[in-house]
UniProtKB/TrEMBL annotation:
This is Enoyl-CoA hydratase-related protein. Pfam families: ECH_1 (PF00378). Coiled coil: none annotated. InterPro entries: ClpP/crotonase-like_dom_sf (IPR029045), Enoyl-CoA_hydra/iso (IPR001753), Enoyl-CoA_hydra_C (IPR014748), Enoyl-CoA_Hydratase/Isomerase (IPR051683). CDD domains: crotonase-like. Belongs to the enoyl-CoA hydratase/isomerase family.
């Protein structure tokens, strides 16, 4: 089991097979600072090889998910003019977030985003790289960058992948804000909950479903899904068939088949004391 890193902008807690990660800068509605970006990257790096962690729940503290980028970091970058042969500080600031969000997107873990209050800019992008997005009644999404004279540089590709080019054009080019009902219609959110009780029940249900799915099969499926549209279909299906054969002959395939025949839960679905809710 991986030792969790010390974080100042995140709170981390283990809950059975899940790691609960809370963005914890409530005074700034959990705006994404460079430190938070670095800490998220460290967390996802450290848990990557930890088979005991099968899901990551991302949530914001005190009623907001994430209000976007941190204004103080922007001001700090403005005071650091790029020297000859050096990268522009705004480039470094922006690209650091891009590396982190790509890392979350490609994580082998199931990423569950719990979306409440402000989900703006970078927070919007983080929601778009989740595998499961569950929203509360207070949620408000927005891509305000163009209204601020900047562009959604690192998040735009992930928003397009999530909701399509047509809808991303409308949201990004008009700097729109939308509520949970519209987020459901766009496919940005999978589930909209009426209150805190329903929200917590939805999280518990999602984590229970993760527990019932084989860890390696889940990770390999996620990797396969990310390849769709980026490789020739014929060669992708050839490789997928090889992976299927390996999975059937592997330990998870054998256990899953035997459990089905014996009408019992497979080993990976067994609960421990920390999995009880």
């Amino acid at each position: 089991m991986t030792d969790l890193p010390h974080c100042e902008t995140l709170t981390l807690a283990r809950q059975g097979h899940a790691l609960l990660v809370t963005l914890n800068r409530p005074q700034a509605r959990n705006a994404m600072s460079l430190q938070m970006v670095a800490e998220l990257a460290t967390v996802f790096t450290q848990i990557n090889a930890d088979d005991s962690i099968r899901a990551v729940v991302l949530r914001g503290s005190e009623g907001h998910f994430c209000a976007g980028g941190d204004i103080k970091d922007m001001a700090g970058a403005r005071s650091q003019p790029a020297g000859d042969g050096e990268q522009d500080p705004f480039y470094r600031l922006n690209r650091a977030f891009g590396h982190m969000i790509q890392q979350v997107n490609e994580s082998a873990k199931v990423v569950i985003a719990v979306l409440e209050g402000a989900v703006m800019g970078g927070g919007f992008g983080l929601a778009c790289v989740s595998d499961v997005a569950i929203a509360g009644p207070s949620v408000r999404f927005g891509l305000p960058e163009t209204s601020l004279g900047v562009i959604p540089a690192q998040i735009a590709p992930f928003v397009v992948e999530r909701i399509g080019l047509t809808q991303t054009r409308r949201l990004a080019l008009l700097g729109l804000r939308i509520d949970g009902e519209e987020a459901i219609r766009l496919g940005l959110v999978h589930q909209l909950c009426a209150d805190e009780t329903a929200l917590n029940a939805a999280i518990t249900e999602a984590l229970d479903r993760v527990r019932h799915c084989a860890p390696a099969a889940t990770a390999n499926t996620k990797q396969l899904l990310h390849r769709v549209g980026k490789e020739p279909m014929h060669s992708l299906l050839d490789d997928a068939a090889e992976q299927f054969a390996a999975a059937v002959r592997g330990s998870e395939g054998a256990e899953g088949t035997m459990a089905f025949m014996q009408k019992r839960p497979p080993a990976w679905a067994e609960t421990g004391p920390d999995d009880q809710h």
